[in-house]
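go over this:
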Amino acid sequence: MVRVIMLSPPGAGKGTHGRWLTRQTGAAHISSGDLLRAEVARGSGLGRQVAEYTARGDLVPDDLIFSILIPAVVAAARETGGFVLDGFPRTMPQALRAAQVGVELGLTSDGVIYLTAPEEELVARILDRAQRDGRPDDTLSVVRHRLAVYAKETAPLVDYYRSRGILLELSTDRPEAAVRADLRDWLQARGLVRPLAGESQTLPDGT
């Protein structure tokens, strides 16, 4: 069963392609953002702490994110045998700690999928999503701040995972079908998914 980390700046398509991966593999899609928003919506003490950080576009402290995320990962692995982890880890300390926890729990990842897109395209996608989904925290200033935080804190993870030989880097500034074809090739090369009968990989231009 596939155990994959989705790494990308906000708006690059972690959620969209992460959900597609779960449909192809049967693994659970775990979105750190969804889990954090759900905790905030519950109005718990933990959720109120999380809200203070997300409202500013800052990263949630490690202890808070681990206390929310690790139980979800363990449950997903128990129920489906795998996971597609969307939006975590986001810093080097988180990555190192997650790797240690993964070894301890027998939940090491098969690979890391790194999605990219030009910054202006990311901004446009996030603002469009905010209008569609009613996310009041996704204002232009917060979006710019989130991208700056990503560049500082999360981008260094790319070299870390690349040095481990487990990184797949894909641009999402192209049709979704093209991105998914590359994802499927990567998964099949590692024996993580089989071709589905009747599924076409034809791109919109007919190639």
Observations:
- The domain at 3-189 is CATH 3.40.50.300 (Rossmann fold).
- The two ends are 30 Å apart (CA to CA).
